[in-house]
Amino acid sequence: IRKAAAPIAGGAITNLTPDPPADSHRPRYAPDGSAILYGRTENPEFYADRMRLWRYERGSGTHREWLGNWDLMPVQWEFADERTLVIEAEQAARVRLFAWDGSGEPRAITGKGSVGGFALCQDRVAYSLQNLVTPTELFAHPIAAGPAAGLFHLGAAEVATPLSPALGFFRDFARLFVTRLCAIGDVEEQRARVTV
């Protein structure tokens, strides 16, 4: 899979990855537009080749590997801001989120359990987290902070805790969801009738 750029006003298409060794995936523009970050595999003969992050500098047309020595394999990545990349990667048979500022090792931003996807909103990351002893929980907290209380926990146990408007909205949503779910008397019976 090659990456290409085409002018909006029309014109020639430019092949950005003319000689990739294998596949390239998930191109993401840097927030300032100066670069494109993408995943790349090296071995076209091996279906499970390790994904590596590469950065294409639009001004110079050069490609360079990012996080080449990291032990984990990035699966998804998004720029949170000009300096921070949020990366989803598997570690010890669990999917975790990491934040990377461009130097050193990425820092884990999720705790125990497995992440089920994430979204970024300004300086916050939102994600679902599940493990074998608790139900799936929704989390939203600043990327700079570590793991925080889940939104369902905030909606059930910390109803009076002052929160920002955004987190207050999600706490109220979680509280209403759980309240309405608990009001359904035959929820298990209804679940058995649902066909997907």
Could you walk me through the main structural features you see in this protein, from its secondary elements to its overall organization?
With 196 residues, the chain is α+β, with helices and mostly antiparallel strands. It is 17% helix and 36% strand. The protein contains 3 helices and 13 strands. It has helices at 151-157, 165-183, 187-193, and strands at residues 4-5, 14-15, 24-29, 35-40, 52-57, 62-66, 74-79, 85-91, 94-100, 107-108, 114-121, 124-130, 137-142. The strands form 4 sheets. The protein has a 4-stranded antiparallel beta sheet, with no helix packed on it. The protein has a 4-stranded antiparallel beta sheet with strand order 7-8-9-10, with no helix packed on it. α1 crosses α2. It is elongated, with a radius of gyration of 21 Å. The chain starts with a strand and ends with a helix. The model has no long low-confidence stretch (mean pLDDT 79).
Give a short summary of the structure:
The protein is of the alpha+beta class and 196 residues long. The chain has helices spanning 151-157, 165-183, 187-193, and strands spanning 4-5, 14-15, 24-29, 35-40, 52-57, 62-66, 74-79, 85-91, 94-100, 107-108, 114-121, 124-130, 137-142.
Order of helices and strands: EEEEEEEEEEEEEHHH
The helix count comes to: 3
Give helix % range.
10-25%
Strand content: 35-45%
Query: How many beta-strand segments?
Result: 13
Structure class: alpha+beta
The biggest beta sheet reads: 4 strands, antiparallel
Strand order, sheet with most strands: 3-4-5-6
Coarse shape: elongated
What integer is the average pLDDT? Answer: 79
Alpha carbon gap, first and last residue: 33 Å
Low-confidence parts? none
